[in-house]
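Field reference: sequence -> structure
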Amino acid sequence: MTFEEIQQLLQSEFNNLTLEVSNQESQAQINVPAQSMIEIIGFLKSNKSTFFDLLSCITGIDNGKEAGNIDIIYHLYSIPFEHALIIKTSIQRGTPPEHPPSIDSISAIYQSANWHEREIFDFFGVIFNHHPDLRRILLPNDWQGYPLRKDYKEQEYYRGIKVDNNFTSETNN
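Structure field:
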């Protein structure tokens, strides 16, 4: 199934939705509204003509305060049909912890989403609604802030130890 055929299938199935298609990237992507992610991704996995049985990656991109959003990008692959698809959505950036950005979890559709979503939560502060175990995965539980957000302010001390990222590359012979 070609990208255009997948696009047409989605348009016919979700005719009340406006899907934005981008062919400017190295791999074509479909931009969808965040509130439709669960339905669209579930359809792409369960439909016999697409059968995207593998979620290979979920990526987060903070577009900064000026843009006011965070992109969440899903990389889907169909092993039997050997085709790939990128689904992209944008969510309001919010201000954690008072007003964190959020989107529904797809971990009930793809178990591999569990760790990907935890990583995005860990580094961007995105809340994945209905996630079975949303907690930090790479940083300590008491870490302050979300390091991949553009407005991240590095804490000066962590557990009484000065945090210093001014590393020098010296070679000892």
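Note: The chain has a mean pLDDT of 90.
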